[in-house]
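User: For documentation purposes, I need each entry recorded in a consistent format: the amino acid sequence on its own, followed directly by the corresponding structure tokens. There are two entries in this batch. Please keep commentary to a minimum and don't merge the entries.

Assistant: Recorded as requested. Entry 1:
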Amino acid sequence: MKEVDAIKDHDTIKLISYLLERQCGEQMRDVWDIGLNLALRISDLLAIRFSDIEGDTLRIRERKTGKLARIVLNAKTRERIAAIRATHPLHVYLFQSHRSPGACNRPPRPLTRRAVTKAFMLVGEELKLDLGTHSMRKTRGYWLYQQCKDLGRVMRMLRHQSEAVTLRYIGISQQQIDQDFLQLEI
């Protein structure tokens, strides 16, 4: 699997959202926008059921680790989820597949990872970025680190076990850490 990047520019984040909606539809834009705000692995993001959301909190068991994730939803995420729920009141999944032939004749299923990967790759190619499903999670981690410079906090959000993994994951190099030490004088 190809390594993907965190998106380190706010305008590019917005452009990706715009292009996903224009080229692939509102649902793919929602996957991007909500995925950025939840920092979940794609398998967990796509598996979210409306029943996993109570008020302003999402509770799910992560597939990879088996850990229970409790995430408080920010205003932007709550608004998008409310809009999806209003548009598709009978859906079971937040990102339910509704385009495939025969979707009405079988039990509800979420979008596939493959469909999301294809949409993200399409936009990534246009922007000449290594964009993939992990880009959302990496981007969230990167921007939290830029805001707080607290690696432990980023590790907890991503539920990582190692600082080295988190630094590599969010695209922070030793050179950038060295620069932080040079620039901050107390």
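Entry 2:
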Amino acid sequence: MAGPVVITLGEIDQLAPRALPVYRMAFGEEQHFLEQFGIAASALRVSHFMAQVLHESAALTRTVENLRYSAQRLSKVWPQRFHPRGPLDPADYADDEVRLANAVYGGRLGNDRPGDGYLYRGRGLLQLTGKDSYAQATATLQSVYPSAPDFVADPEAVLSARWCLGAAAAIWTAKECNEAADANNIVLVTTRINGGTVGLAERRRWLARTRDVWGN
């Protein structure tokens, strides 16, 4: 029986030549998370996981969600919320990350207190978004690693070299993405990670590249 798939730093450099040091360190030292949560069990799972990671993290160059949008862009990204179709005036939210995050994420995704929308904005390799996702990643990770941080209490821990790969592997597992990857169903994987199919075309392109790297 073949052993776990190991992602080399050479492969990271091939796919993401501008990868941030924190992410390179995580892949260099913390791949036990991928083995623990079954992601490393097959090349197909690794390919799907990495395709989603590379999309969500902008090829390992993004740690926190960028919420600085022009007024024109806001109407395209959230058409149901902003003029002309939605109730909000995009000019009031352009280039204001805090106000925007609280408007578009507040009152949902488990965000039940003032300021939660911004506090639990997208972070990390799979861009955890919303208090519920931070709690889900915490519970899954702590079930195997009791010393793991509480990401709800300390959202910035999602960005640490020690725990960023664990947070991503945990939310992947909690959302049953290994099973979707086994079926080679990128639409289902994307829906479970994203809540929709935003960026599906780019995720497909990443998957073609990652499958080429890991030969499946």
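Summary note for entry 2:
The chain has a mean pLDDT of 97.
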